[in-house]
Amino acid sequence: MTPLLVAMPGNERLTEDLAATLRWDVGRLEIRAFPDGETYLRFITSPADRPMALVCTLSHPNKKLLPLLFASATARELGASSVGLVAPYLAYMRQDRRFRPGEAVTSRQVARLLSDAFDWLVTVDPHLHRYHSLADVYTVPTHVVHAAPIIANWIKANVNDPLIIGPDSESEQWVAAVASDVGAPYSILDKVRRGDRDVEIRFKDPEQWRERTPVLVDDIISTGHTMIEAVRLLTSQGWRRPVCVAVHGLFSDDADVLLARAGASVVTTNSVPHPTNAIDIGMALADAITRVHQCTDG
Ligand code: R5P
After folding, report:
1. What is the predicted pLDDT for the residue at 205?
2. Cα(195) to centroid of ligand 1, in Å?
3. What is the pLDDT of residue 169?
4. Ligand 1 neighbourhood includes 223 CB (under 6 angstroms)
5. Which of 19, 99, 145, 208 would bridge 124 by S-S if both were Cys, CB 3.0 to 4.6 A apart?
6. Full-prediction pTM beyond 0.85?
7. 63, 64, 156, 191: which is the annotated catalytic residue?
8. What is the spatial order of strands in the sheet that 51-55 belongs to?
9. Mind spelling out the 3-state secondary structure of 58-108?
10. What is the distance between the alpha carbons of residues 40 and 42, in angstroms, rounded to a whole number?
11. Could you give the CA distance from residue 77 to residue 275 in angstroms, rounded to a whole number?
């Protein structure tokens, strides 16, 4: 039977595009909040006896996770032969160890919840810092889309003479891959994070690339302070107007407005819907879904 792709709220556009590429059916879900905030959920399209996947990007995840788990459990009760998860942004990956005594290692706990609820997972560039791969914490088959070549294509088409810059050592994995695909040099800044919204950036100024356009590349823009401080530093040193590129634009605290005010142009992939989405990861996601679905559903 043709598999079913079902959007959790806010993921309708990507779901329609993916279903068209995959030639899967789009399933419909009725979902709303009761007056007290509890979730009402009903499958309008029956998932009985067919493989299905839910599409739910997990930016600002706390409100999304419980309805997502309800949807998965309900699909199983209604007889779906398998239930996959397409989460272009996978939340809770940054708390990957107990930094201070007594802290929750939420990456492990969320991985356990999602591994119990789904048969497979497809995502885009999860924040892997201290984990080597998703298999360190997820127990179901996973497939990761790497946005670097897609970002590199965008930079090649839109920026002359770029210097690819990573705002911190964690970003080097993406920055090096993007720079190699673009065929441009790269440089990594030093970041000291003192708190959620308190970041200091230092720069070993690579004088020899002064004539190039700085393109800051990171996996996530959350509060934007990492990018904002990097942009301020570059502009104060007289560099050209920086371009900020992120795989996942979460934009907490109006970070997009603050970044524009700091003098940057901002571009993101459509892993999280936002007006800055200029880089489409749809084809790569569809390819990943096909691969993982073939492995798990035959
Ligand atoms: C850090 O681990 C990530 O790669 C990003 O640099 C970070 O999440 C950005 O956060 P913010 O936008 O809040 O500075």
Report:
1. 64
2. 11
3. 87
4. yes
5. 145
6. yes
7. 191
8. 25-27, 4-7, 51-55, 82-87, 120-124, 142-145
9. CCCCHHHHHHHHHHHHHHHHCCCCEEEEEECCCCCCCCCCCCCCCCCCHHH
10. 7
11. 37
The question of whether 64 is a catalytic residue gets the answer no
Long-range contacts of 68-76 (CB under 8 A, 24+ apart): 68/8, 68/117, 69/113, 69/117, 70/39, 70/41, 71/6, 71/8, 71/29, 71/31, 71/41, 72/117, 72/118, 73/117, 74/41, 74/43, 75/6, 75/43, 75/47
- Give the Å distance between the CA of 129 and the centre of ligand 1: 12
Residue nearest to atom 5 of ligand 1 (CA): 220
**How far is residue 287's CA from residue 265's CA, in Å, rounded to a whole number?**
30
Provide the pairing of β-strand 51-55 with 4-7: parallel
Helix axes 62-77, 106-117, angle to 10 degrees: 20
In sequence order, what are the residues at sequence separation of 6 or more whose Cβ sits closer than 8 angstroms to the Cβ of residue 238?
Answer: none
> How far, in Å, from the CA of 266 to the mean position of ligand 1?
15
Q: Is 218 in the pocket of ligand 1 (CB under 6 A)?
A: yes
How many helices and strands in the chain, by DSSP H and E?
8, 16
Side-chain half-sphere CA neighbours of 43 within 13 A: 24
- If you measure from the C-alpha of residue 99 to the centroid of ligand 1, how many angstroms do you get, rounded to a whole number? 16
pLDDT, residue 298, reads 61
DSSP 132-156: SSGGGT--S-EEEE--HHHHHHHHH
Structural Rg of the chain based on CA atoms: 20
Length of the chain in terms of residues written? 298
Positions in the chain whose pLDDT score sits under 70: 205-206, 297-298
pLDDT value of residue 190? 87
Best mutation site among 226, 245, 254 for ligand 1 pocket (most ligand atoms within 8 Å of CB): 226
* Eight-state DSSP code of residue 280: -
